[in-house]
Amino acid sequence: MDEDISIINSNTRNQKVRNFFINNKNKIILTTIILIFTLIGAYSFDNYKNNKKKEISNKFNSTILTHSENKKDVTVQKLVEIINEQDPTYSPLSLYFIIDNKLISNQDEINSYFDVLIEKTSMDKEIRNLIIYKKALINADLAQESALLNILNPLINSESVWKSHALYLMAEYFYSKDQKQKSKEFFNQIISLENSNSDIKLQAEKRLNRDLSE
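-> structure tokens emitted (214 positions)
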């Protein structure tokens, strides 16, 4: 008797399963198709990104290896194209190559490429902060106080590992302008900062004791 009941229950369950698949056949087929296309799309996109990365890498390497003074314009054109690709690795390297080799003299143009990296390129937060700091360094000699602070404020108002570097740059900027009180304030911020870079902190202490102790 129990065996018969068990067989009936099993048959009932099987029938329910069959009925479920029959009644929901179209939904199941649609869901399966969507899943397949999603997996294909994800694979294709990943494959595209890898190929694009390789293409940008090859373009960067060939550009810097074939660079010469008489090919300056071609080098700049290709490196600017790479910057505008917004690649987290080769776009910054392209801008640094332009700066290191003095291929562009217009500071506004250089700043516009920094902005592409900072505002449009997807990258690690601290790498972006480093690029912000580099932009400030490039502008420090000629920038007005407000402009330099505007560049560095994202670091100064953060907990970034580059915060103490930003504070030190502002402190030295004011010291070079003979604005010693402002300079002292920034150096003191470095001293009181918990995660201040040890070398930066040491230099700040030396500057305070040697030149700003009065």
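The chain is about 80% helix and 0% strand.
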